[in-house]
Automatic annotation (TrEMBL):
Coiled-coil portions: none
Protein name: ABC transporter
Database matches in Gene3D superfamilies: P-loop containing nucleotide triphosphate hydrolases
Family: Belongs to the ABC transporter superfamily. Macrolide exporter (TC 3.A.1.122) family.
Protein's organism: Sulfurovum riftiae
Taxonomy, superkingdom: Bacteria
GO molecular function: ATP binding; ATP hydrolysis activity; transmembrane transporter activity
Gene Ontology cellular component terms for the protein in this record: membrane protein complex
CDD domains in alphabetical order: ABC_MJ0796_LolCDE_FtsE
InterPro entries in alphabetical order: AAA+_ATPase, ABC_transporter-like_ATP-bd, MacB-like_ATP-bd, P-loop_NTPase
């Protein structure tokens, strides 16, 4: 097994046709390795969400090649009919809003996807409790989402994204709804997951204070993806 978790070559995404053609991504080539936490930073409308959704096998590219781990999943077309299966097995999503299901308690939210994937209830609960303990929120396992703070809900959402043991985490502005202390906690947690579990994490963020906590920055410039080192660590954090 190589170190590559995500690789894209000459990726293109256009929306619409003729006069309404929008060229969002045009010839992007980049790689993200296992164990890396990478920030994706670009102005509004530059194509960050579009890029995440292509990597996540949700949005079909116009052309190009994508590998997830060692598996080539897209080469000018999806190489499997089962993109949903790839998504379920390899990828965990985290969004700005936590999207926990309000009528299920914390542990039920975390066990939902593994159980949908055929994992037994006992096994799914065991893994969920381990994750909740790891995120120091196991005491809330039987609470409802509405009883939790924003930061606690986001920790549960991260536990849920990890419940399937994905190789890749795609996080779209996971700290946008949090204050600066909670944001730092969440990003540090994402870094810990990347390091401890050899997972690749791409996190869209508009918050410059989060960048020193990441390993690398990807930007979208002229519709291509460009890699940058992170700025110096800010001692305040
Ligand atoms: N389904 C679609 N049909 C047509 N255009 C789309 C579609 N989805 C996205 N776009 C366009 O693609 C561009 C990139 O959108 P995207 O949401 O990826 O940007 P973003 O960088 O994530 O922006 P933000 O920071 O505001 O979330 C925008 O110009 C948007 O209008």
């Amino acid at each position: 097994m190589g170190k590559q978790a995500i690789k894209a070559e000459n990726l293109v995404k256009h929306f619409g046709k003729g006069e309404s053609l929008v060229e969002v991504i045009d010839g992007a080539s980049f790689q993200v390795n296992k164990g890396e936490l990478v920030a994706l930073v670009a102005p509004s409308g530059a194509g960050k969400t579009t890029l995440l959704m292509m990597i996540g096998c949700v949005e079909e590219p116009t052309s190009g090649t994508i590998w997830l781990g060692d598996e080539k999943v897209y080469a000018d077309k999806w190489l499997t009919k089962e993109t949903r299966k790839i998504r379920r097995e390899k990828i965990g999503f985290i969004f700005q809003a936590h999207y926990l299901i309000p009528f299920l308690n914390v542990i039920e939210n975390v066990t939902l996807v593994p159980q949908t994937n055929g994992v037994s209830e006992k096994e799914a609960k065991k893994t969920a409790m381990e994750l909740l303990e790891y995120f120091e929120i196991a005491d809330k396992a039987h609470a409802m989402s509405s009883e939790l703070s924003g930061g606690q809900n986001q920790r549960v959402a991260i536990a849920r994204a990890l419940a399937n043991r994905p190789q890749i985490i795609l996080a779209d502005e996971p700290t946008a709804a949090l204050d600066s202390k909670r944001s730092v906690d969440v990003v540090k947690m994402l870094k810990k997951i990347a390091t401890d579990q050899d997972v690749a994490v791409i996190m869209v963020t508009h918050d410059e204070a989060m960048l020193p906590l990441c390993d690398r920055i990807l930007t979208i410039e002229d519709r291509k993806v460009v890699s940058h080192p992170v700025p110096e660590k800010i001692t305040m954090i």
